[in-house]
Design goal:
This protein has 267 residues and is α+β, with helices and mostly antiparallel strands. The chain folds into 2 domains: 97 residues, Immunoglobulin-like (Sandwich); 140 residues, C8orf32 fold, CATH 3.10.620.30. The protein is built from 6 helices and 15 strands. Helix 3 crosses helix 5 and helix 4 packs across helix 5. It starts with a strand and ends in a 16-residue tail after the last strand.
């Protein structure tokens, strides 16, 4: 399998700041990755510091003055990587409530609705179907600070909102779950995509209640408790405006067919 992904971003900086980008793909052991990443501020190249985080998250960080910043990232991934490793840290951390996946507010409801399925593929299928049928995918319908509770009450959201609700429900029935930002060939409208991962049958399995792209071709960018850990851009101290964001993600050949009842890992 050959996948080509990329992002072009333009940011207007109106007050000096520190920027952090998470747009580079995570390490892909056993696959070949060819990539380029450029930051240019008012025509001058900027050299970022790459910070390696948990799960291979790659944060590119630098201080920037006032001006127009252009970012250009491209990567080609040839082959597939191993399924994500599992640690005792994962089993502990990803059962806990978090800022946008408030599992503690779903304990009673989730136990009643999904408690009989246990740790199983059937559980993932039912949670994915339940979330997918109760939410409408409506760009602009949610705020960046909305969590799973607000999403359920509003009945609408975008990919991160779907993923937060899936994560919260799974944690509430004692299944470790987390959020992953990905490049998603086939997704429409094309953008950075967010999905959930759940620990089932000895591996991390991907759940995408939006059904907007086949899970078999997803490319991992960042992994964490929720969107606070995986945001593609963080701004500290200053002021910025996002002028442009163009994301691309394609796979050679036809997109694979996906079925909600399949257990799929991000590779």
């Amino acid at each position: 399998m050959r996948r080509e992904v990329g992002a072009e971003i333009e940011v207007e900086i109106t007050a000096p700041t520190t920027l952090e980008f998470q747009i580079a793909v995570a390490p892909h052991p056993r696959a070949e990755v060819f990539e380029s990443l450029r930051f240019v501020l008012d025509g001058r190249p900027v050299q970022p510091l790459e910070v390696s985080g948990v799960h291979g998250n790659r944060i590119h960080k630098f201080d920037a003055g006032v001006g127009t910043l252009k970012v250009d990232y491209a990567a080609t991934i040839v082959g597939q990587t191993d399924p994500a490793p599992v640690t005792e840290y994962d089993h502990s951390m990803y059962l806990r409530p978090s800022r946008y996946a408030e599992a503690d507010k779903f304990y009673g409801f989730a136990a009643t609705e999904f408690g009989t399925y246990g740790d199983s593929a059937t559980l993932l299928e039912n949670v994915s179907s339940w979330v997918g049928t109760r939410l409408s995918y409506v760009p602009g319908s949610s705020d960046p600070i909305d969590g799973a509770v607000e999403t359920l009450l509003s009945g609408a959201g975008v990919c991160r909102d779907y993923a937060h609700l899936v994560v919260a429900l799974l944690r509430a029935v004692n299944v470790p779950a987390r959020l992953v930002s990905v490049y998603a060939p086939g997704v429409h409208p094309m953008d950075f995509h967010a999905v959930a991962e759940a620990f089932v049958d000895g591996q991390w399995r991907v759940v995408d209640a939006t059904l907007l792209a086949p899970r078999q071709t997803l490319v991992r960018i960042a992994t964490g408790r929720d969107a606070s850990d995986t945001a593609f851009l963080d701004n500290h101290r200053g002021a910025i405006t996002l002028n442009q964001l163009t994301v691309t993600a394609v796979v050679d050949g036809d997109l694979p067919r996906d079925s909600i009842d399949q257990l799929v890992s991000i590779r």
